[in-house]
Each structure stands twice: as structure tokens, then as C-alpha cells.
Design a protein that fits this description.
The complex is a heterodimer of chains A (236) and B (289). Chain A has 236 residues and is α/β, with parallel strands linked by helices. Chain A contains nine helices and ten strands. Chain A has a domain of 122 residues: P-loop containing nucleotide triphosphate hydrolases (Rossmann fold, 3-Layer(aba) Sandwich). Chain A is globular. The two termini of chain A are 34 Å apart. Chain B is built from eleven helices and two strands. The chains are: A alpha/beta (236), B mainly alpha (289).
Amino acid sequence: MADELLIAEKIEAGYPGKQILFGVDFSVRKGEVVVLLGANGSGKSTVLNAVSGFIKPFGGRMLFNGQNIAGLPSHQIFRHGIAQVSQARDLFPDMSVEDNLTLGASQRGAAKAAESRTAVYRDFPRLGERRGQIVRTMSGGEQQMVAIARALMSGPLLLLLDEPSGGLAPKFVDEIAQIMARLKQGGITILMVEQNIKLAFDTADRFLVLKDGTVAERGDVGQGVSQEEIVRTIYL
Amino acid sequence: MLAQLLVSGVSQGALYALVALAMTVIYRATTVINFGHGDLVMAGAFVVYLLVVLAGAPFLISALLAVVLLFAFGVAVYKGLIRPIMAGPHLALAMMAVAVGYALRGLARVVWGREVLPFPKVLPQGTFMVGPVILAPSDLIVTGSVIATVAILAIVFYATRLGKTAQAVFQSERGAALVGINVSAFQGTMWGIGAAMAALGGILIAPVTLLYPDLAASTLIRAFAAMTLGGFGSFLGAAVGGMLLGLSELLVGAYISSKLIDITAYLIIIGVLLIRPSGLFGRQAVVRV
């Protein structure tokens, strides 16, 4: 379909000696938010890593804007317009907020980087106030904001979020939920993994439930699917 | 006498600093301490020896070729031997570096045995007096090279985009990949630069120590001591650590016993690790595990 930004076809992927994904199929349309749900070890993060190039799929195709990106190294996939916020955040801990953000736009040239930085400080005023602060001295929630903002600095066509609320205090989970809502309003296409089903369903348009490396269920959020049913599918 | 010892110590220490700086470049790119680095120093010196003495090539062209050749060798070692095991335990990386070093040393031994060869006299000879202190132009050139190298590295690593990239890769390889940096190409280049600097070190050291396949052993431990004293990962630390080690060796030799000169580096390593493991300018080490 013309409005499909990412199409994953029969993706087989994993680590040496251990296959995690077995023929996973899904798509993400432009401007929508798709959430991957599933128990620990079901393959959710592996899907994101297969999209972003940190894991090389050994089977299937990953079409992004019609081009097969499966197997490309991560820095080339990034240049296609896919940015990832990893579960561990992977920030540069001894650099300032500003340096982290600038590096996020390092492939775009100075003018576009400055433009992105202005936009990010407008959307994340707390980061603007703390632009000189060394990242390792910030709280977990603030670091998560830096990680999301750094990914946005590249002007991505597709944003991959791996458990954006993971390990955060409830106050910050609410803040992350607001950020997600803003990103969605801004028309950013998102594929995310999220364990917090309420947060996921508040933001997402569609969901996929992964179980043992395969898609066990999929559907549109808000079309009569109860969160309890999803939890049963995930864990039972 | 003290003034002479201080000047000679700094000059001696500048040689250690130059090698320590090259090891720091590789450490900052990959968090690998290249235990085979001393042998790259030896290899650089031997390449020049081969070109100048055996092939009759002009010294400057030979030196340039040695630097280029060692750069290519450093990149090849990274791509062929280090990169494939980067995901493995840190110890494996250290052992691979040791193995490369021993292979180079073994190759040199096969050809030259334990022969000690005179290196072409490339630096100006003779001495001159400044007050009570005897100075050699060659010492000034080596010390000047180290100061220039520290200045260049400081500018590149702290005031340019390349420097930010290097810091990013050092602090988080995955983070660097997440912002589109080609980490593998970057690390390969840094291994190349480190090896090229080793060649430069060899060219400056060999006229002092003469040339032999085991040249590396004493160079490596002294550079390692300089890094430990200055703090791993710090360019300023590597330079200052090297100078202080050179000074310590001469002062210990003059005022306590010349027999202690060869173990000064080991004593410094033990002392620093016990008293201030992060060294003079280092932060807590970031080590891949």
C-alpha cells in the first residue's frame, strides 16, 4: 500500500546459536503509532533491533519506503531516516545535554542541526534549561527525555522506541505519555515496544502481540479490544 | 647536576610520552590497551632501516612511507583481527594485541636474530651549553614533537567535530551507532592513526636505543607506566606521565642507585594503582566487559 512506510516480511532473526524471530510480518503506515506487546523474551526488542540494523536478519525482507534495508549496517539505516531510542538509552554520559543533541543531528549539517535544536528545546523546555548539564547527573526520566530528543534531532521518518516508560517513576511515566501524545500529534511515525499497556493503548493506533518470536495477535486499538484480553494473550 | 638531570629526564620522558600518546589514541577509540604497541614502534623503525640502509632511499621519504605503511597495517589489524572479536571478552582483545606484537617481534627475530643495529643518524648530532646544562638538538626535537603532538591531539579531540565523535564512541559505542556514526570505520581509522604514531615514535626512539627486535619490551612497559601515572584515556596524562617517568628514572638512578632505573616504571605502576588508580588526570576507567 502506498502509505506504508515500513513493511516487514517473514523476518527471521536472532543471535548466534539462538533464533528469536520466526517469520514475523507487520507494517507501519506513515503517521501512525504501532506498539509491540509481549512477555519478556518474546522478541519485541529484537524486532526493533532488526529494523534499525543492530541485528542482521537471516531471512525475510524489511522494506522501508519501498527499499529493502534488511542487513544494512545501522549507520546506513539511520541515514534512511530511522532513529531508535534503545531500552538502555545509550546516551553519552559525560557530555552535556547540548552535545548529546548535537551529535543526534551530526549527519545533517550545522544549519539543520541548529533548527532541530531550537525545535527540541521548544518541545522539551526542561532540556533547554539544562542544556549545559552533564547527562550522567540527570534523573532517569530526564535522561529518557534526552534520549528521545536526541533521536528527534535527526528528523527521522520513523522513530523506534524501546520501552520509553521502562524503569521510570510514575511522575515521569505521565510526562513520557504527554511527550508521546505530542509526537503523535506532530505526525511522527512510531514503532514502539511498551510493557505499560495503558500507556501503549493511550498512544497507539495499532498493536501486535508477539509470543515466542511470532505474531500471536494484531489489531486496531479502540476497536473493542480489551486490555485484559491482551494481557491474557501475552501471558497465558 | 640537578638542572641537567631535569632536562635530560624530560627529554627521555618525551619518548615515553610519544608512545603513550599513541596507545591513548587506540584506547580512546576502542577501550583496548594495545599490549602489542611496542612492537609497532619497533616495526616502524625497522621499515625505515630497510628503506634507508638496504634500499638507499632518502630518510624523509622512508619515514613518510613507514608512517603510511604502519597506518595501513593498523587499519588491517583492526579489521582483520580485532573487529571480529570486539563483542567477545575484553581479555580476548588484549591477548590478540599481544599476539600481533609477538608475531611482529618473532618475524624481526627470524631475520635479524638478536643483532643490535645502528639506526641512521637522522637527527642533528652534537651538543651545546645553556648555562650549566648540556643540550642536544635531538632532545629538543623529540620534546618539541611530543608537545606538538599533545597540542594537535588536544585541538582535534576537544575542539573539532571529529573529537566529539571520538568522545561519543569512547563513551558509548552503541550510542554512537544510534546517531549514525560508522563506528567500525572510525575505530579502524583510530587504530591506523595509533600505529602511524608508533612508527613516528620508532623513528625518534631508535637513534637513541639502537635497533633490535626486542626494542619493544622496555618501550611498552614505560608507556604503560606513563598512561597509568597520567590516567588512562587522558592525552595530557600520557604526556605528563611520560615526562615524570623519564625524570623519575634519572633522579632515582642518580640519587639512589642506577640499578633501580629499570624497575622504576614497575614501581610507579604499583604505587599509582594502590594510591590513585585513576592516575593524575584520569577519570574512572570505562572498560568494555
